[in-house]
Amino acid sequence: MSPAPFPYKLVATDLDGTLLRSDDTVSERTREALVAATAAGAAHIVVTGRAVPWTRHVLDDLGYKGIAVCGQGAQVYDAGAHRLLTSVTLDRQLAGLALSKLEAEIGPLALAASRDGVDGEVLFGPGYQVQEGGLPARYLEDAKALWTAPLNKLYIQHPELDDDALVKVARETVGSLVDIVMAGPGIVEILPLGLTKATGLSLAARRLKVKAAETIAFGDMPNDIPMFGWAAHGVAMAHAHAELKAVADEVTTSNDEDGIAVVLERLLGAA
Asked: What integer pLDDT is reported at residue 133 of this predicted model?
């Protein structure tokens, strides 16, 4: 009896905490597993909360020439051509209203913002602790300057509330105006209402003529929940947030233990 074919036509991987190890590299084992999956007929799509300027160097290092979903689904990016295919921006007036309501409830917040475009800067204001190690961000003494150009998203931090508590109160207070997601430790974001990783992934999959039922997705944080809901099979990393593990179809090993490769090798072995 001949083995069954590789069961998925699309492999969607989050970046930080999933495809990238703790040292921000992709292991040779994981690279080889992804190459084998693509050789078996599956496309690989990176689906990340990072905007394009914080993603493209990783894609270039991988030799990645396909489509990537960036900015929590706001940007569909052609990595081979280095150009945006689609981009959704945050309504700055609505975001300002949401921020005012939230600060009236819990006090002042430290802010950062991701500007739209392939070369869009990440700007941060007083008190904001930049979490992404080694990635470019520009400090602005006057936080009002964050609002002077189109944005993909805002980042918020509170001096006392932890991430989970901040997300909870923000959703309760302004969840009818904007979306609030936790993308990583110290990374709570304000997004356009209804925008998720699943939004961008579905657009990218349509371009590739691939269906949700043909997709396996890997992730580690609550912002990956919509992607898991869209894909046929969701795989959480061992260290993933409890909210994501609760909706995952399976849990693999950590990013530092080649969790993506462990699953793909198993599936390829059956193929």
From this structure: 59
User: Are the beta carbons of 160 and 108 closer than 8 angstroms?
Assistant: no
d(CA 119, CA 212): 31
Q: Which residues pair with 11 in a beta bridge?
A: 44, 216
Beta bridge partners, 77, equal 68, 84
In degrees rounded to 5, what are phi and psi of residue 12? -105, 125
Task: For residue 104, give the amino acid letter.
Answer: A
Q: Which amino acid is at 128?
A: Y
pLDDT, residue 207, reads 94
Left (φ > 0), alpha (ψ -120 to 50) or beta: where does 186 sit? left
Q: State CA 48 to chain mean position distance.
A: 3
Distance CA 267, CA 117 (A): 37
Closest by CA to 217, choosing from 44, 30, 68, is 44
Q: What is the rounded distance in angstroms from the CA atom of residue 268 to the CA atom of residue 140?
A: 49
Dihedral Cα 40, 4, 213, 35, nearest 10 deg? -20
Strands 10-13 and 122-124, how do they pair?
unpaired
Residue 212 has pLDDT above 60, yes or no: yes
Strands 43-46 and 67-70 turn out to be: unpaired
C-alpha 166/C-alpha 214 separation (Å) is 35
Residues 186/180, Cβ–Cβ less than 8 Å: no
Q: Is the pTM of this model over 0.90?
A: yes
Q: Specify whether the CB–CB gap between 211 and 171 falls below 8 A.
A: no
Give the C-alpha distances (Å, rounded to integers) separating 137 from 3, 95, 132, 134, 191.
49, 21, 9, 9, 19
What CA–CA distances, in Å, run from 110 to 140, 155, 160, 161?
12, 8, 11, 12
